[in-house]
Design brief:
Elements (H helix, E strand, L loop, with lengths): L20 H23 L9 H10 L3 H18 L12 H11 L2 H14 L4 E8 L2 E8 L10 E7 L6 H4 L3 H12 L2 H11 L1
Antiparallel strand pairs: 1-2, 1-3
Helix pairs in contact: 1-3, 2-3, 5-7
């Protein structure tokens, strides 16, 4: 099955002022579309054609297949990225089981927030900050470029894109401010909780 660009689950203005219409138009319509186009080219005729995105991500990393890591990896990351955000998102009240796990595995919400923002801030160059399930416990991680926790033996349940195109229009070079806005005002905790349940 060929990769396809999904529609955004909200209007282009829904995340303003934290993420602008202009950012979403460029990021979704141009950047994500490019990953889809290039990912389909890289998959065409390969043994991984028709496999699930998760399988492709893991196999691509094991085989050090850069075009697939960068494009199919980024397609997977972005499919979820759009859903990890919502209008009126963020905040400290997490759904039950997830709240308990953040407390027991990560030392509580405030420590999670600080560690997640730090992971994204200290990811040199392009990449992602993650909350993932690894060995049955929550972990904050970061990856370079199009990589994701699937490629490192974990299941992602929340990710924030720290490539410059995801924040430069709105925040210029202030990556920490963008990460703060993401955590405090944009996270769709219900979607994170769904992925947490699936990963357990």
């Amino acid at each position: 099955m060929a990769l396809e660009l999904p529609k955004l689950p909200y209007d282009y203005d829904a995340l303003a002022p934290y993420m602008s219409r202009e950012t979403l138009e460029f990021h979704h319509d141009k950047h994500h579309q490019a990953y889809v186009t290039n990912g389909n080219k890289a998959l065409e005729g390969s043994p991984l054609e028709g496999k699930s995105l998760e399988e492709i991500c893991k196999a691509a990393y094991a085989e050090k297949n850069a075009p697939l890591i960068n494009n199919v990896g980024q397609h997977y990351n972005h499919l979820h990225f759009w859903n990890w955000m919502k209008k009126g998102g963020g905040g400290t009240s997490l759904p039950g089981a997830l709240a308990k796990a953040v407390e027991s595995d990560l030392g509580g919400y405030d420590k999670f927030r600080a560690d997640f923002i730090n992971a994204g801030t200290t990811q040199f160059g392009s990449g992602w900050a993650w909350l993932a399930v690894k060995d049955g416990k929550l972990a904050v991680m970061k990856t370079a470029n199009g990589e994701n926790p699937l490629m490192h033996g974990a299941s992602p349940i929340l990710g924030c894109d720290v490539w410059e195109h995801s924040y430069y229009i709105d925040y210029r070079n202030a990556r920490p401010k963008y990460l703060e806005a993401f955590v405090d005002n944009m996270i769709n905790w219900d979607y994170v909780a769904e992925m947490y349940e699936a990963a357990r």
